[in-house]
Design goal:
2 copies of one chain form a homodimer. Chain A is of the alpha/beta class. Chain A has helices at about 5-15, 30-35, 50-60, 70-80, 80-90, 115-120, 130-145, 160-165, 185-195, 210-220, 250-260, 305-315, 335-345, 360-370, 390-400, 410-415, 420-425, 440-450, 455-465, 470-480, 490-500, and strands spanning about 20, 40-45, 65-70, 95-100, 125-130, 155-160, 200-205, 225-230, 235-240, 245, 265-270, 290-295, 350-355, 375-380, 405-410, 430-435, 485, 505-510. Chain A has 3 domains: about 5-165, Rossmann fold (3-Layer(aba) Sandwich); about 185-315, Rossmann fold, CATH 3.40.50; about 335-510, Rossmann fold (3-Layer(aba) Sandwich), CATH 3.40.50.970. Chain A contains 21 helices and 18 strands. The radius of gyration of chain A is 23 Å and the shape is globular. At the A-B interface, helix 2, helix 4, helix 5, helix 8 and helix 16 of A face helix 2, helix 4, helix 5, helix 8 and helix 16 of B. Chains A, B: Its EC number is 2.2.1.6. Chains A, B: It holds the Pfam family TPP_enzyme_N.
Chain lengths: ~525, ~525
């Protein structure tokens, strides 16, 4: 058993059974060892941003880490933006970052860099296995560390000689950390405050947005308390048969209007809400004047259990208001995001997974699918676009029996378009939609809000994607995924109906501009 | 004048006149200010790795920094791998990294991250302009810092409020640092050592590989001294009418064989050579036993001047051996890298610029173009593939009168394929070639060398790009660049002849597998 064997066996023993990889020379021992450990599923990604986003998608769907395999510091950097999103999502994830042999570092060969320095801002845990014998124990430690709480990235640096040298043993199986329970006294105190408030709101994030938390939130709503989620959460259980909490609005002034008169904000697995960006003369902190914000616990607690306890303490009934199944009629005429949302709502099957990197098209589709069949909605947690396709890769590998729908702005999709090749290669049941408005639409909106003048010719040129127009059908076909272009609601509805009933990769270019 | 105006005017005053950008909301003031400063050329890139590689290409060709415009820490990360290559190339480059407004950071909004932490490993200089008044002076300081010596990345963090607030003045024009001269005494001493050595070699890197350094190297060769370059240098002046120094071989054992018996290695703007990677039982340090390695100066010196002084001290003649123009016959039959090299040698015009990210196809083409018309060869300095297309973008923007040829392995090209859209948009005179062997060929070679067993099915799956095969003509056509596929030497020669005589973007898929 060499160090690479010890690593992969230890990872598998600890439940890490998918590896999203873009290896180089220093990772060849790991690659070779994959042939000796059938429990680990290797998935090749043609760019590291796909690998890290896929690992995030896997982690969000399974609650356990996948690993990435990255080529030294530069490979890590390529995956960094989606690791930022994963950090914000609280997703457990283990990065295996290859490095030069320990004795080779001193020569500062071209690929040498400060790997630990690169990894630090986005990692809960960074260690380097300086000998083959350290590999197994550190691998187990990395998996355990990735659970947090809250979850996040653990980055294990693997020098080439630690991989190829003989290892005396693999690492142990370590227990998964248990999330903290909120004390009964704190629950009771919070229940009293909620009852005493004139206009309270409960704001939840993190793991509260899964099925159990949403159900408890419904009970709180039935007891008369408004429950909201953060604007962007890692995973939201929603659709027919589930309670639909409100969602904190994206633009600060709208959020403040929505929260007018609120005198108590109870935070569960989240913090005081803030605007996504700052703008001159607009609020940053989205807590109304005179409103008290109090936390029941941050992302390290068991939020769903806290919500259940709070509902019990408030004497909330077990029956919560849930959304009825209410599928819209077939949309007709010119295509827009609401009609796209209607078509999606009509056709997506039970337990679909939505990977949302749709930017300006996202909210209309989110609203349109409120009464669709039950599904999970995965959001852009860290604001780094280019998450939508990679996340879908990982979700589909994790959940082969569920339909995955990846929704992407055209600007966002271009970031990690390489992921479509992996979808084709692995024959994943992913339907990718790109909203081709041929512009960074959100920036046209944001520009005025930041106090910048109306864009002149030079500025417009930095927001425009229409010269030349990307031919998505051609581009995506080149990556091995069959693609269709839809310019009307009828075409889109037909394409969606086909994609949702036919397993395997599909791609739809939705022409919006 | 707001902070963004102060920034752009100061950059232009200090010679920074190209901005490779992928902006977001926090950069909108910079974008708006571009309309007020016509000296700055903005170039939109659809992924930050394209922007940073393009800035590297600009810097290598002009010797002055371009700037990037990046969206917070995640945007920086996306550009990180090509910044690693730029650092290794010693290219002056200024990153402008947008950030949240200073007062907004405390709320830790989704895109918040440790920007300075991300930037540190790859930057000579990192500062944040915490007020609008600091922007201009820091911009001037950043430009100056980017020159080194040696050059590298200066990273200026620009909080949104420092951009939108009123600034009292722009920054100064700062002088460009002058590189250190090697003392006459050191030159004379080195000349004596060279004369006393039985089998000396002079190894040069950095700025020595430009026209002046290569010419001086030719004089040293004429005086009887072997001159070599590092395996990978930022920019090498070569072709007909120029001296052709030897190149340090990539594989360590071959390099050691090549250096057998060398008793003195004189280093100029480089360090003791090391293998690109470590392998079990193979040498890391590529200095033969008993050979003394002595440095005339690192990358901070004026290497070309030192070489001229050394040639003078050795009494070398002014006339140096130069390569004759010797163009090969038209290649015929099945396509391989040597025939591709022949076709390129035949057709590339005077002063072409080659951006080489061709991996296993690179060396045969390099060898085949030794006697082609004079040209500059830009190499993969940091080993992070995905440099070839972006670097060509920047070189073409910098040198609109020169033909740029971008050579890419298919695996490498997929990293930053988005750059082809920018080539189309800016109508750059770039011919991009992708070598479609549908495999990470280099890894197949490296795998055995690292002591890993022959790849089994799982390992093979991580080296293979052929399932599905990427249809490059379709993919690249989707990005707006006309593309042709060539499966024979005749087809390739015809396509190259056309591309080299017709301005504007061209793309050739060279079928190699």
């Amino acid at each position: 058993m060499n160090g690479a064997d010890a690593l992969i066996e230890t990872l598998c023993d600890n439940g890490v059974t998918a590896c999203f990889a873009n290896p180089g020379t220093s990772e060849m021992q790991f690659v070779a060892a994959l042939d000796r450990e059938p429990r680990m599923r290797p998935v090749l990604c043609l760019f590291e941003g796909v690998a890290t986003g896929a690992a995030d998608g896997w982690g969000r769907m399974t609650g356990t880490p996948a690993c990435t395999l990255l080529h030294l510091g530069a490979g890590y950097a390529n995956g960094g933006a989606n690791l930022h999103n994963a950090r914000r999502a609280g997703t457990p994830l283990v990065n295996v970052i290859g490095d030069h042999a320990t004795y080779h570092r001193q020569f500062d060969a071209p690929l040498n860099s400060d790997i630990a320095g690169w990894a630090a801002p986005n990692s809960l845990w960074v260690k380097s296995a300086e000998t083959a014998d350290e590999v197994g124990p550190l691998a187990a430690e990395a998996v355990q560390a990735s659970f947090g709480a809250p979850g996040g990235c653990a980055s294990l640096i693997l020098p080439a000689d630690s991989a190829w040298n003989e290892a005396s043993a693999k690492g142990p199986v370590l227990s998964r950390p248990v999330r903290a329970k909120v004390s009964d006294a704190d629950i009771q105190a919070m229940a009293r405050r909620l009852k005493a408030a004139a206009k309270p709101v409960i704001l939840m994030g993190g793991s509260c947005c899964g099925e159990a938390g949403v159900q408890a939130a419904g009970r709180l709503k039935a007891a008369g308390f408004r429950v909201m989620t953060d604007t962007f959460v890692a995973r939201l259980a929603r659709g027919a048969g589930r309670f639909a909490p409100d969602r904190m609005l994206y633009f600060g002034e709208m959020a403040m209007e929505d929260l007018k008169g609120v005198d108590l904000m109870v935070l569960v697995e989240t913090v005081e809400p803030a605007a996504f960006f700052a703008y001159p003369s607009r609020p940053s902190l989205l807590v109304p004047e005179g409103c008290e914000a109090v936390s029941l616990g941050d992302k390290s607690i068991d939020g769903p259990a806290a919500l259940v306890a709070l509902a019990d303490a408030l004497g909330a009934s077990e029956a919560a208001p849930v959304e009825p199944l209410d599928l819209p009629a077939a949309p007709t005429g010119g295509l827009d995001p609401y009609k796209i949302g209607a078509a999606i709502a009509r056709h997506m099957p039970d337990n679909a997974i939505i990977s949302d990197d749709a930017v300006t098209a996202g909210l209309p589709i989110f609203q349109s699918t409120r009464n669709a069949r039950p599904h999970d909605w995965l959001m852009l947690t860290g604001g780094a676009i280019g998450q939508g396709i990679p996340l879908a890769v990982g979700a589909a590998v994790a959940c082969p029996d569920r339909k995955v729908l990846s929704l992407n702005g055209d600007g966002a999709a271009m970031y990690t378009v390489q992921g479509l090749w992996t979808i084709a290669r692995e024959k994943l049941d992913v339907t990718t939609v790109v909203f081709a408005n041929h512009v960074y639409r959100i920036l046209g909106i944001e520009m005025g809000r930041t106090g910048a003048a109306n864009p002149g010719p030079a500025a417009k040129r930095l927001l425009d994607l229409g010269d030349p127009r990307i031919d998505w059908v051609s581009l995506v076909g080149g990556l091995g995924v069959e693609a269709v272009r839809c310019a009307t609601a009828e075409e889109f509805d037909t394409a969606m109906a086909h994609a949702m009933t036919t397993p395997g990769p599909h791609f739809i270019e939705a022409v919006l501009g």
